[in-house]
Design a protein that fits this description.
The protein has helices at about 5-10, 20-25, 165-175, 190-200, 320-330, 345-365, 405-410; strands at about 30, 45, 50-55, 60-65, 80, 85, 95, 100-105, 120, 125, 130-135, 155-165, 205-210, 215-220, 225-235, 240-245, 250-260, 260-270, 390-395, 410-415. By secondary structure, it is an alpha+beta fold. The two termini are about 40 Å apart.
Length: about 425
């Protein structure tokens, strides 16, 4: 349980909010690369309570500017992309990707007025089929070198989906290992890890602090001879890395639009081979507008008849739909002053403590955890190792299985 003040601290993300100041210290996805292909129109975006415009100029450079022209506040998402920048339709002012005002056609010849105008602009980077932005002050940190960014495009899939709630409850759902025993139950008949999650509903949990956040072990005793182990990672400040198959893992990145809405970006990758069509199933329920087809307005198309003998929640097999129902149902901003946390919520409680400390660190002028600088040798290897869910002989120490090839070879992968 949090106090109202603590809850506000972590969930308010707009300009001037302390929780927002924390998230601004990290690079955040602002769009899929496919949303701003060469020759595309400017894209209006809202990020951390700010209205902005994203564009790719004719030199393939990406800019992120304040959406309202510095002259008289016209909407730059309708602007022309030409002459090395974004030209306002109202009076022709031209801005480059850095917010420099290059032209003011209405000013007298020889005027230096344009040199006095600096439009709001944020640094951007493009990697792994995503466009990132840094909204913090000072020198931007290094973009984290997650494995998913460096594999060939055919070995990676990305998606995004609108979430009608605060970002924090979205990410807290990722680090709740026990919900797998109920929320996703019976959604994939024959899936071994779902069978094991359903059979053992009270996992043993252990947490490990890391350089990036928290590693979460959920251990289920299958029988006297075997143990089922799942590792999930809370990654500061607003993402999670969760088990995939034996050659990769998935990232769920919850990016605040404002206090009451966010985007969930999903990244899945394979280290050795192309992504198979069935591995893209999570995006099948997402429409062209990045909204779920099953949603609150149609009650997620819940099939009560199927719940009698074929399904647990009756909302189809897609985990994104399940997760969205759970987190959006908590309200636009979950009231954490009335909750009752139990044993299986220990990772959520630990993540909140870590976030609150990080907020204090920022206020004291320090880099919070997992802000990576070029001089930081740890940037070469973040240690975010997420192996597939695995069944180990009970005699094997499961604590380090995920980084020990010989142990993994004697284990049973639940994804085979």
């Amino acid at each position: 349980m949090l106090t109202r003040e603590e809850n506000d601290l972590l969930t308010q993300v707009g300009p001037g909010a302390l929780g927002g100041a924390l998230i601004r210290r990290y690079w955040q996805p602002v769009a899929l690369s496919s949303e701003v292909p060469p020759g595309s129109a400017p894209l209006p975006v809202r990020l951390l309570g700010e209205d902005l415009v994203l564009f790719r100029d004719q030199f393939d450079r990406i800019g992120l500017l304040g959406i309202h022209c510095a002259h008289r506040a016209a909407d730059l998402s309708y602007a022309r992309i030409e002459d090395g920048g974004l030209r306002c339709l109202y009076h022709g002012w031209l801005y480059d990707i850095h917010g420099n005002c290059l032209e003011q056609p209405g000013e007298p010849e020889g005027s230096t007025f344009k040199d006095k105008v600096q439009h709001l602009a944020y640094p951007t980077a493009e990697r792994g089929d995503l466009v990132f932005a840094y909204l913090g002050g000072g020198e931007p940190p290094s973009l984290p070198p997650y494995e998913a960014f460096d594999v060939p495009p055919e070995q990676r899939s990305v998606y995004k989906v609108f979430q009608d709630c605060n970002y924090l409850q979205g990410n807290e759902g990722n680090i709740d290992p026990q919900h797998l025993s109920f929320l996703h139950r019976l959604s994939r008949p024959g899936d071994l890890n779902q069978t094991l999650n359903t059979r053992v509903t009270a996992p043993h949990l252990e947490l490990e602090d890391t350089d990036f956040g928290i590693r979460i072990y959920a251990v289920r005793k299958v029988d006297e001879e075997n143990t089922y182990v799942r590792v999930t990672n809370f990654v500061m400040p607003n993402l999670a890395a969760v088990a995939g198959d034996a050659e990769g893992y998935s990232i769920n990145w919850h990016v605040p639009i404002d206090d009451t809405h966010h985007w969930r970006y999903g990244i899945r990758f394979n280290r050795t081979q192309p992504i198979r069509p069935q591995q893209n199933a999570r995006s099948e329920e997402i429409g062209e507008d990045f909204r779920l087809i099953r949603n609150q307005s149609n009650r997620y198309l819940q099939d009560r008849e199927s719940m009698k003998n074929r399904a647990f929640i009756g909302m189809g097999p897609n985990f994104v739909v399940h997760d969205t129902w759970a987190t959006q149902g908590e309200g636009a901003i979950q009231n954490r002053t009335t909750e009752h946390l139990g044993y299986t919520d220990m990772a959520i409680a630990a993540a909140r403590r870590m976030l609150l400390k990080a907020v204090r660190d920022v206020q004291e002028g320090q880099d919070p955890l997992h802000v990576i600088r070029a001089s930081d040798r740890r940037s070469e290897d973040l240690g975010i190792y997420v192996r597939n869910d695995i069944v180990l002989p009970s005699s094997v120490d499961w604590h380090r299985y995920w980084e020990n090839d010989s142990v993994r070879e004697m284990a049973t992968s639940t994804h085979r």
